[in-house]
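Task card 7
Instruction: Convert sequence to structure tokens.
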Amino acid sequence: MSSIWNLISHGVCWARRGQRRGRGTAVLLSLLGGSAWGQSLLSAESWCDFGQAGPTTALPAPVALSAAHGQTRFFGTGPGYHDADLALVSALEGSSVDWDAATSHYADRVEGVCALAASSRTLRAAQVLSVGPIAFIRPGTGDVQVPRHSRAVIIDLRELPAAPGLEEALARAIGAVSTAPVARLSERVRHHIGMTDEMTPESEYSAYRNFVEPRAREPYAATGRAELPVALLTGPALAPAAARFAVDLRMAQRAWLVGAPVHTAVAESKWMPVKRKGMLVRTARLEDAQGAVPDVIPVDSSLSHFGLGVGSSDSVPSAQALQATSFSGVPTPVDRTTPVVRNAPEKRFALEVLPPSAASSGIARADLLILHGATRLFFPYFGTVGDGIDDRLLEMLALVDAVPVTHVQQTQRLLLRFNEVLQDGHGFVYARGGPTPAGYFAVYLDEIGGEPVVRRSVVPDVHPGDTVTSVDGVPMAEWLSVETAHASAATPGWKHEVAARRLVNMNGPSTFGLRGVDGVTRFVQVQPQPQMLLGPPSFRGAGSLADLGAPELHYMNLANQVLSSVGQFRAALAAAQGASGLVLDLRGYPNFGSYEPRRRLIPTPFLTSVFRTPVWTGPEEFGWQEEQGEIEPMSNPSFSGPIVLLVGPKSVSASEDFSMVLTGARRVKVVGRRSAGTNGVVARLLMPGGMLAWFTGMEMLFPDRSTFHGVGIVPDIESTPTAVDLAAGRDTELLRAIEYLRTGQ
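Output:
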């Protein structure tokens, strides 16, 4: 291979003779300038000084800071969840927030994060200047066409902004002067299969996990007509993609570095703009077969050999100086004798010591941003429910600015209101360490016509069939309006259930307005009771339906309070042998983790539901892990006769998972009311102040791949009780199931 330096020398001499040829020559002469960078800059410390910012963003600053913190929290090489979250709290304290100051404050306190002023530069169109045998490339948008007579190439990486499209522009530049693909370094990054549960130590049975492994990068594709020698011009600060490009090419011995050394930490970072400032967040460690690459990639020449000093960026080396230097062949391997001090990302674990209960405006703001960032990365249903989380975040932050947060219940309510926009029936928020209720309103409520109606009660003077019309003088319609605005749910029935549950917690005696089945409203003062009234809508045990006039039919209640094990299920199913029909009650919550009960109810091979989990391979590559299986039936005992499935608005999650398979196999007739439309393993997010937020972490589809979320199990036959039915203890859904099994209608 010809000496690139001799070619550069020839080109510079040619350029000097032809200065009158115009602006292109002047540009080349200027861009060949450089500064001398001493060996003292080869330290890996203060890598922030060597990064180039990118443009700002159109996103509101809180949304952008949420994204930056999400990168740090879930992909960064710095501290774990809790320490990064506390840095965010510190940055967001006060009566209001200066988002630029908060960005700097946050970056100062988090390892692997740098705050920089955003740049106004954008990625311009690619430029190719030809000076004799030298092609000078300024990467940018559009194709790169290298003149046929070119014998060497200079690619200028200086002052390129960390703007969208830069990585692709650089790939086009090297591709245009290569006939063979150029290998790229792998990057050790954190992988996420769903969002790891932050409350429970991970086990082999965990649905979600994270781990750290190398991620291979595709080589730079070759599109050129000739393999040309390449020199890269580097400045004191580079955009992350430009630094990555330089490290890739120099480690592959594909290019020389001229100008300033390249700090590998910059190449391992990602630009995250916030407002007038932004952050470089380091998310990887670059590696090859020998391990981590050096912290600093030294230049092959600082150009001081050519008579240039610091600050002489407009100077041009003399032709004599260039001719005196000859680098032939390919660059020598980069020296790797200096120990690498850059850390790699580490696996994230659940916290061993939980955050203490605390409240402040900074905690509330930080928790809102943390929850927003986590759902942005891991909530799977935006395509189904719509994406309103940015506007909801701004709405909640405005409330914090308006009313300072002084107790944990305020933070909890803000987070509940945020979660409401997800329309997710698992969207709960718990305040650890908050005040304990004085007791409970010990009734079991059902929803009839949009009103809470008592199904069971152990409270004196409160009876089944009573409709709750008010609480402490607040009309129930008004009370429910406030609470449903803080209740996340995918279907109306479950939304009412989530809101109405909050009637149960009592801080002291309360007066309830109650409308009896006779239409008369009375007011009853209720004392808090020591226990809640829990359980499924019905506690009826498995057995014959002879007491309801159908001795030929059998009933099985799968609620965990009634049938708590697979062994009990087998015994109940054996007792049902010979029945002409079976009523399967899934209005409660089952306790079966295996597919065995379904295998004994479906006599032919069947498909499971489709489980789709979000997967991040480092911070850039998103995909899905999808699982669906075919299951074989089991016998002895089993049941192959007609089955009616009972569901209702409290049929949620595991109840629905059981039901999805039965309905997907077309094994049952469904009677009752629509279920909650919420299934999938919960992701649990632990935040400062002792806040624990839940959301569904995987997408669930029916076995035929149709949408489940927000649809739920829809009855073939609608059946809704009345207040009179509840007062009489009449199970109308069960009676309707019996009617169908006996008449087929």
